[in-house]
């Protein structure tokens, strides 16, 4: 079954304790992305990756790191979490988003990770 | 700054009512408009991807229209059912969006009462 998986689904942690949220997809997608969802703000992109070893900042990258050593995995790293990073996080993947006429590439979302930083 | 607005923010209807909501997006550099359905504790689920002005898409009782010249899309649900209760998200993709980014609206939260 084609899917994007995230772990953990729920996490409560304390300020400053490094954590990693894993994301994996089995669709051989080039493009992967992390979003955070906060009430009233919609989904905002944190980081994205166009392919292995190619990553770039989205709209709200501060306090986050990512890596893309393999095509299927795109972990999100919080080196020193703070309470303002309490949020619902989604990983997504798709085929390459390079614009081609008549082609559109749907993004497939993981189930979400609800993170609370106290 | 590219802005995507959805209205209303929330909607409460009775089972059997038909409803519609709006997504407004920049009318320039348009590439695609996505609609997602998001139930609490689940992944956002793709409903439609629309690319051409005048596009109309339909999936069961849900349909959507697209006007790229004026920058809006409507989502319609005919004969709402309790299982339609969810947040409906639209997302804009522009030709020059960095990294193929989707810019999401805040969503319309639909509640259908039996």
CA-to-CA gap between the ends of chain B? 41 Å
Largest sheet of chain B: 6 strands, mixed
Instruction: Using a beta-carbon cutoff below 8 angstroms, give the protein chain pair with the largest interface and the number of residues from each chain.
Output: A-B, 31 and 26 residues
Oligomeric state, counting identical vs distinct chains = heterodimer
Level of helix content of chain B?
under 10%
Please tally the helical runs of chain A, counting DSSP H or I stretches of 4 or more residues: 0
The low-confidence parts of chain B are none
What's the tally of helices of chain B?
Answer: 0
What about the largest sheet of chain A?
Answer: 7 strands, mixed
Q: Which descriptor suits the 3D outline of chain A?
A: globular
Order of H and E elements of chain B: EEEEEEEEEEE
Provide key terms for this protein.
heterodimer; A: 118 residues; mainly beta; seven-stranded mixed sheet; four-stranded antiparallel sheet; B: 114 residues; six-stranded mixed sheet; five-stranded antiparallel sheet; 0% helix; globular
Helices and strands in order:
The complex is a heterodimer of chains A (118) and B (114).
Chain A: E1 4-7, E2 10-13, E3 19-25, E4 31-38, E5 42-51, E6 54-57, E7 65-66, E8 76-78, E9 87-94, E10 108-109, E11 113-117
Parallel strand pairs in A: 2-11
Antiparallel strand pairs in A: 1-3, 3-8, 4-5, 4-9, 5-6, 7-8, 9-10, 9-11
Chain B: E1 5-7, E2 10-14, E3 19-24, E4 30-38, E5 45-50, E6 56-59, E7 62-67, E8 72-77, E9 86-94, E10 103-104, E11 108-113
Describe the structure.
The complex is a heterodimer of chains A (118) and B (114). With 118 residues, chain A is mostly beta strands. Chain A is built from no helices and eleven strands. Chain A has strands at 4-7, 10-13, 19-25, 31-38, 42-51, 54-57, 65-66, 76-78, 87-94, 108-109, 113-117. In chain A, strands 2, 4, 5, 6, 9, 10 and 11 form a seven-stranded mixed β-sheet that branches. In chain A, a hairpin with a 3-residue loop joins strand 4 (31-38) and strand 5. Chain A is globular and about 40 Å long. Chain B has 114 residues and is an all-beta fold. Helices cover 0% and strands 54% of the residues of chain B. Chain B has strands spanning 5-7, 10-14, 19-24, 30-38, 45-50, 56-59, 62-67, 72-77, 86-94, 103-104, 108-113. In chain B, strands 2, 4, 5, 9, 10 and 11 form a six-stranded mixed β-sheet that branches. In chain B, strands 1-3-8-7-6 form a five-stranded antiparallel β-sheet, with no helix packed on it. The radius of gyration of chain B is 14 Å and the shape is globular. The mean pLDDT of chain B is 92.
């Amino acid at each position: 079954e084609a899917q994007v998986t995230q772990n953990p689904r729920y996490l409560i942690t304390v300020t400053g304790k490094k954590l990693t949220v894993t994301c994996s997809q089995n669709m051989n997608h080039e493009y992967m992305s992390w979003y955070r969802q906060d009430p009233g703000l919609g989904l905002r992109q944190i980081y994205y990756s166009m392919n292995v070893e190619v990553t770039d900042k989205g709209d709200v990258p501060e306090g986050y790191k990512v890596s893309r050593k393999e095509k299927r995995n795109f972990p999100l790293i919080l080196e020193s979490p703070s309470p303002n990073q309490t949020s619902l996080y989604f990983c997504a993947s798709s085929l390459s988003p390079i614009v081609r006429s008549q082609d559109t590439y749907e993004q497939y979302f993981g189930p979400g990770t609800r993170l609370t930083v106290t | 700054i590219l802005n995507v607005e959805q209205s209303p923010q929330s909607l409460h209807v009775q089972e059997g009512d038909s409803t519609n909501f709006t997504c407004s997006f920049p009318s320039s550099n348009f590439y695609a408009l996505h609609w997602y359905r998001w139930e609490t504790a689940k992944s956002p689920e793709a409903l439609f991807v629309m690319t051409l002005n005048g596009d109309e898409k339909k999936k069961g009782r849900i349909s959507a229209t697209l006007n790229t010249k004026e920058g809006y899309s409507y989502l319609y649900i005919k004969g709402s059912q309790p299982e339609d209760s969810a947040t409906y998200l639209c997302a804009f993709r522009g030709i020059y969006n960095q990294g193929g980014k989707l810019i999401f609206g805040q969503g319309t939260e639909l509640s259908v009462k039996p």
